[in-house]
Amino acid sequence: MERNRSSKIIAVVALVVAVFGLTLGFAAFSNTLTISSSAYVSPSSENFKIGFSKSASSATETGALAGSPTGAATAGSATLAGTTVSGLKANLTAPGESVSYTFYVHNTGEYDAFLNSITFENVAGGSAPKTCTAVDPTKTTAALVSAACEDISVSVKVGNDAAVAGSVAAVTGHSLLKTKNETVVVTISYASDGDRADGDFNVAFGDLKLVYGTVD
Fold it and tell me: Domains of the chain: which residue ranges?
């Protein structure tokens, strides 16, 4: 009886040892398989497309652009083509007159756009964004031309923002979503209480630039 019990105990212990050894045998071998990955994305600038158009309904309408004068003023012949508008001109006769040109900026790209800055650059070859010169210096004085020049300005209104007549280095919160457009109004005006010159003179303005980007 005692011998049988001892034999059973020995058999159980042997079985436990065998199973434990088997377990250790399996645990002693393992393989770790590692997969590393990455991606490089290089977006094309061709997918960011902002441009001018004469029409709100079409992003590609270019050509002659008419101005809207007030009083006895008349508008020069302007031209719109892609990303440039040239030839905006006001022929003014007295204080209180103005000429406005209205056109549109279209976002036809794949990104929402933000207006980042508005810059009134200096006149080509000059050191100021506006210069005035008498047509015939013998018929007026430099002082009269200079005083009248102070009262003639150009301003731009983009979308719903207020019109500005000087550079804005950092515009924030002004978005133009993809497939959308916004109105641009450029106005050349002679202040209603402006000084007068007693002879003709020319006013030159530097280029006006609107900079759009993908980041506000």
Answer: 49-213
